[in-house]
């Protein structure tokens, strides 16, 4: 990216893309890590819960609010998910676990843990929730597994590895996370 004004992505002898180096580099990461994501397709599709809510979309954004498949280590980011409620519910718990490719949990959060009151939702209503943080995870693919629960224990919908993002960065600390420190 620093030295070229054009780049080419070749996969198995086939030219996939020619263009701006930043765009080609992003596609390279998708092609390179895509096999890992595709290999998880069955697991990612295996949802659980009683179906009274459905997680219907999940995505990552950068600090400008743009959807991303790549995020830079150390920069602000946000995980988003959209849920549809199939029955009326008051103050559902909304949670997410973030894990690496080796299935090691990196971080978990829940509206119950923070004491957030999520509100009342009629049947058919949709809501978006978000988790904002500085990307402190080590470079590699990070998966998000969101879930919605009621009464603390009844799972309405849970989507293991619903979406993922590739964390880029030059610093490998050897740990699962790279927290700022002095």
Describe this structure in words.
With 182 residues, the chain is α+β, with helices and mostly antiparallel strands. 15% of the residues lie in helices and 47% in strands. It contains three helices and 14 strands. It has helices at residues 21-39, 41-45, 111-114; strands at residues 7-11, 14-19, 53-62, 67-68, 70-72, 76-85, 89-90, 93-100, 105-110, 120-121, 126-134, 140-150, 154-158, 163-168. Strands 5, 8, 9, 12, 13 and 14 form a six-stranded mixed beta sheet that branches. It has a four-stranded antiparallel beta sheet with strand order 4-3-6-11, with no helix packed on it. The longest helix is centred in the N-terminal third of the chain and has 19 residues, at 21-39. It is globular, with a radius of gyration of 18 Å. The relative contact order is 0.21.
Residue stretches low in confidence (pLDDT < 50, at least 5 long) are 33-44
Overall strand count? 14
Radius of gyration: 18 Å
Number of helices: 3
C-alpha end-to-end distance? 31 Å
What global shape is seen?
Answer: globular
The SS-based structural class is alpha+beta
Overall pLDDT confidence: 85
Give the amount of beta strand, in percent: over 45%
Main β-sheet description: 6 strands, mixed
Helix content: 10-25%
- Write the element-wise H/E pattern from the N-terminal end onward: EEHHEEEEEEEHEEEEE
């Amino acid at each position: 990216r620093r030295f070229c004004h054009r780049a080419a992505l070749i996969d198995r002898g086939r030219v996939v893309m020619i263009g701006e180096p930043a765009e080609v580099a992003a596609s390279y990461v998708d092609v390179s890590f895509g096999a890992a994501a595709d290999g998880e397709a069955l697991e990612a599709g295996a949802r659980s819960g009683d179906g009274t809510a459905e997680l219907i979309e999940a995505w990552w954004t950068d600090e400008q609010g743009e959807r991303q498949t790549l995020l830079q280590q150390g920069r602000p980011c946000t995980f988003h998910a959209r849920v549809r409620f199939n029955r009326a519910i008051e103050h559902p718990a909304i949670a997410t676990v973030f894990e690496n490719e080796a299935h090691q949990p990196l971080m978990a959060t829940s509206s119950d843990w923070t004491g957030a009151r999520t509100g009342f939702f009629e049947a058919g209503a949709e809501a978006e929730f978000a988790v904002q943080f500085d990307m402190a995870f080590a470079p590699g693919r990070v998966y998000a597994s969101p879930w919605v629960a009621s009464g603390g224990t009844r799972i309405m919908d849970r989507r293991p590895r619903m979406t993922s993002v590739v964390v880029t960065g030059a610093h490998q600390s050897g740990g699962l996370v790279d927290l700022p420190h002095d």
